[in-house]
Specification:
about 425 residues, alpha/beta, Rossmann fold, 2 domains, 5-stranded mixed β-sheet, 4-stranded parallel β-sheet
Length: about 425
């Protein structure tokens, strides 16, 4: 493929370092002669459907580089999944129409498993409709549940936030426990996989340190065993810190806290496991409690991001451009761990067939025998991912973030009237 334009888009929940990946992609693509213009879709794949494409050629390089220390999604993200092509071909045909109109030959989609599915589907429809298109999925998720890759960019920073927050809050609880709060419950994101909740275990440097109980999605919740552990901990040291994953289920497979709604990917909308568990502690044991649901804070805290995570995010971005321009269709740059101590890694292409719509769960070898903690193997895996400093520039006491112009490219087609809005 000799020349054309490159389109980048962000999908799913954003992270502290997804913009670092974006910046690496944009800067790398700008240096390549084959690439005429780098475009970014507004709000993910929906922007491509609606022909809402940011033309990035007017963006200052300093602001592109500032994306490395800017959380959120600079171009907007979305939760929207392409339908089964056998049932509805219209969105696919529209996407190819938009790509053709703007001479886009490379599409890089930055997201998780559902985004890998979108990239895979587009790569196939491009070939079917005889349009020369190379699709590369770029990994991102704080859930760390993407298969094949050792870890997912975004996870290391969220894991660091979790471990730091649990450590610091536990010192607060310990200081007040005699006359006030006995039990503190912290809720971590993670849906079906317990990676982020498990990372809280790094806060414990010695036996008996907090967190004293970690409730993981991989271990069915047993109310009696949980309450016995909390009571024993409070009676022994005077207080107890509990970390609960939002995706914890009971023995029948029901989420402890499900909002009763589903997102556009079909996933149950979660949140509220911490107050549910905290109320249970007070109702059954009588202990005063406090709980925290950090929600977006855990995925947007760029100011304490992991240096390892930032390096991963930028490396997968650069590799994605290389793979795309080399014609490696339907792949994802995956992180391959070479050693844990010292931590060494490399980037290798992985086929999307092995990634799309798949989930990597916390292995049994990472979960303590009692089901309430993590093992030494888990520590060896997790520890390198939260290390290193990711420099954040400050001005007037606040972090400096990128300020982009975000000029939309001129439309060339009639508005899209299908699912997803016009």
């Amino acid at each position: 493929m000799s020349s054309g334009n490159l389109l980048y888009a962000q999908s799913g929940g954003v992270t502290a370092v997804i913009n670092a990946t974006a910046g690496a992609i944009i800067e790398a693509a700008r240096k390549r002669r084959q690439v005429g213009t780098v475009l970014a879709a507004r709000n993910g794949i929906l922007g491509a459907l609606r022909e809402e494409l940011y033309d990035l050629k007017g963006e200052d390089l300093r602001q592109i580089r500032a994306l490395a220390h800017t959380p959120g999604g600079a171009f907007g993200s979305c939760r929207w999944k392409l339908p089964d092509i056998a049932k509805d071909r219209a969105p696919y045909e529209r996407l190819i129409e938009v790509l053709r109109a703007h001479d886009i030959r490379w599409f890089l989609y930055n997201g998780g498993g559902d985004s890998a599915d979108t990239a895979l589907k587009l790569s196939r429809i491009g070939a079917e409709l005889d349009y020369p298109l190379v699709c590369v999925a770029v990994p991102k998720t704080i859930d760390n549940d993407l298969p094949v890759t050792d870890c997912s960019p975004g996870f290391g920073s969220a894991a660091r936030y979790t471990a730091v927050s649990v450590l610091e809050a536990s010192l607060d609880v310990a200081s007040m426990a005699e006359t006030s709060t006995k039990v503190f419950v912290y809720e971590a994101m993670g849906r079906h996989a317990g990676w982020l909740a498990a990372s809280a275990g790094l806060a414990a440097r010695r036996p008996g340190d907090a967190p004293h109980v970690i409730l993981l999605p991989e271990v069915p919740f047993d109310q009696a065993r949980f309450l016995d552990r909390v009571k024993a901990t409070v009676e022994k040291i005077g207080w107890c810190t509990v970390v609960v994953s939002e995706g914890v289920r009971d023995a029948d497979g029901r989420f402890l806290a499900e909002a009763g709604k589903r997102d556009a990917f079909g996933h149950a909308q979660l949140g509220g496991a911490a107050p549910t568990v905290a109320r249970l502690v007070t109702d059954k044991l009588g202990y005063k409690h406090h709980w925290a649901v950090p929600d977006y804070l855990q995925r947007s805290a760029r100011h304490i991001a992991s240096g390892t995570d930032l390096a991963h995010a930028q490396a997968v971005g650069k590799a994605a451009v290389e793979y795309a321009l080399a014609g490696q269709n339907a792949v994802m740059p995956a992180i391959k761990r070479q050693s844990a101590a010292p931590y060494r890694w490399e980037i290798r292409p992985a086929p999307l067939e092995r990634i799309a719509n798949q989930e990597k769960m916390l292995p049994k070898s990472f979960i303590s025998k009692d089901g309430f903690g993590i093992t030494a193997a888990a520590r060896r895996y997790l520890a390198p991912l939260i290390q290193g400093e990711a420099k954040t520039p400050w001005r007037d006491g606040l972090p400096v973030v990128a300020e982009l112009k975000l000029a939309l490219a001129a439309r060339k087609l009639p508005p899209w009237q299908g699912d997803g809005g016009a």
